[in-house]
Specification:
Elements (H helix, E strand, L loop, with lengths): L1 H22 L6 E5 L6 E5 L5 E5 L8 E4 L4 E2 L10 E2 L8 E5 L8 E4 L3 E4 L2 E4 L7 E5 L8 E4 L4 E2 L10 E2 L7 E3 L3 E3 L2 E9 L2 E8 L2 E2 L2
Antiparallel strand pairs: 1-2, 3-4, 5-6, 7-8, 9-10, 11-12, 13-14, 15-16, 17-18, 18-19
Amino acid sequence: MVYLLDLVVPVLFLLSGSLCGASVVDPVPTFDHRDPVTGEILKCPKCPPGTFMPAHCTATTRTQCQPCRDGHFTKLWNYLPRCLYCSNICTGNQEVETECSPTTNRICRCKEGFYSADDFCIRHTECGPGYGVQTKGTQQTNTVCEKCPAGYFSSSSSAVDLCVKHQECTSGKQCSLVCSPLHIENIFISVIGGYFYTILHFIGVHAW
């Protein structure tokens, strides 16, 4: 019997400690304030986020808290005499990501096609002809371009387009700008005096 009690008592002690710990709530943060009447240093509760403190606590009353009005906020427990103004204004190439609320300032982000650098929104770099997009730009990073490898091309400037693979002609045809029959060696198009002359050079045949 004594042996069983030796086992049960520590277990009950541990359980009681766990239960007590589970019921503990983080205390309201406080700040020191001297009562102007008594001169006593009081531990005044702070006001929660989304509110401000219009009046300190006294020896007989608690801290007074009031909610922030529209366009103002407090993010932390505080004893501010007024709420902070939502000062972030999204302008130019910015747009609102998170609107102002009683507990948060307005948060801005760059619009689509722009990225943030030194507090400015800058348009993503376009990759020029002969270059394609390796990594598309984001709201935090610029475009990364790469030179088109052999067998690929890019004929335009773009911040989103990749290099495109050259078209493969079907059997029995070769490609210049467009596919052409094999018996035609070359096609030259020139403009002389405002007229178009087409010179076709056939195998063993010359057209003048």
